What we know:
The protein is of the alpha+beta class.
Amino acid sequence: LIMGLIASHDITVTMTGDASLRGRPMGRVIDPLSKVGASFAARDGKFLPLTMTGSQTPLPIDYTPPMASAQVKSAVLLAGLNTPGTTTVREKVATRDHTERMLSAMGAHIEVRQEDGLRVVTLVGQPELKPISLEVPGDISSAAFVLVAASIVPGSDVTIENVGMNPLRTGIVDALKAMGGDIEVLNERTLGGEPVADLHVRAAELKGVTDLPVDPSTMIDEFPVLFCAAAVANGTSRFTGLEELRVKESDRLAVMAKGLQANGVKLTEHDDGIEIEGIGAMVPGGGEVESHLDHRIAMAFSVLGQMADSPITIDDASPIQTSFPSFIDLMTGMGAGLKLGQ
């Protein structure tokens, strides 16, 4: 996102990150921002660290991302803020629209329409943005870990308050319901232009699902913990269309497959997905999981550990602090058995 902002300003910036970020391909952002007029010098042409210089005379672009990525879309839109003319992004698959909602609330001229089967977002550049007071709802990607934990641990009964329910983000709720989850959506309301609700979840006997009635883009970050739900569900689950998981903070398909197998779960990994043989009970556990500095891997196996006959060891849980610093205290406060090593 910062790369998008810089792309239309005549400044030079060098960026780097931790080992996880340095392994993520940046070519998907470099390509459209280069069309805006920014220049880049990146490791191997597409990895951090990189140095970029924004354009003194940025150009509006009409761009169709080759993959479903809210980050790419948002980077292009943010570049368009300081670009004269109209910037257009055409999505083959609709992705989360927090950027569009926020910029619109701040006074930007944004239009969204359907055209030839695509979701088309246009932004008129150089708007006069106004400050707003914004109440940020709870992140459903973080709530997902509690949703799954409460769904699979017998006797659980938990209410999660103030969860953002953007319709392009709620796939995890629909997925768990499709597997037999007991989730109620309560107190629906709007905060800061975003739909919000409380989620009441109770333990349920989950069943495997081979044809998930959910668009993967509405829950792409939640699949690791959903795989854990599938591991303890009764029957086989098959998830496809998940190529994007291979270019997250880690190759989440490969890392989750290896971790699940290390803890006694039978599965088949595919190029674009995974087939998991649910045990219908607690998993054997006893294995060690390499998190690859990926916070969602560490949290997913922390949840699965609550339904393991033997403890699951995660080699490095420190990345959890990146996105959910209160995760350990929250989970142990609800009775989860989690212990940080030295």
